[in-house]
Amino acid sequence: MAGVCDICGKSTGRRVFRCTDGKVCRDCYEIVSNHFTSTITKSTLAELKERYAENAAPLDLGENGFHISYKIGTFLLLDEQNQKFCILSNRAVTGVYARPEIFSYDALEEYEFLCEPEVTMEEFLTLTAKRRSKTVIKNLRIRLKTRDSKDRDLVLLPGAAKASGPACRQAGKYAKEIVQWAKRLQDRYEGK
Ligand SMILES: [Zn+2]
User: Fold this and answer.
1) 107 within some domain
2) Which of 8, 43, 64, 159 is deepest in the core (most CB within 10 A)?
3) ∠ Cα 110 112 114 (to 5°)
4) How far is the CA of 90 from the centre of ligand 1 (A)?
């Protein structure tokens, strides 16, 4: 069964991982499966090579590296000492793996609390506190706008959920933390 890995060219040894049109060694599989969190049986070799190129490079931690001083759920890591933040993949909620990204605090330009139905965060928190609220929240995310002018959405709810239910209460707790943090940064950089 041993053969040659179609990505790196090394011998696959006994552990061969197959995609639709090729085979991959364990080392490469680890990279293209995002640390064994996805399967590749339905992927093509071309897709895997692309993913490999994206994932193989180490994360750019920037000057002085990254030291986690605070964590907000599976959404954000903060490095207060070096004034950096890391947006996590949050695969648990979105079901999609994305590479973590690291930014310096001053890269954050704006944030938006986005909820469907459209309510403010305060209104949302009030809804989650009401025991018998019948409101269903379809979508909840916090959009971070960074200096590279790409929007990054922190998805706080995996799907529609009752505002008074545990998923929304949990999402509300994190939303509050994220907004407080983002507001603090904004105030700081606007010199308030
Ligand atoms: Zn390989």
Assistant:
1) yes
2) 43
3) 165
4) 27
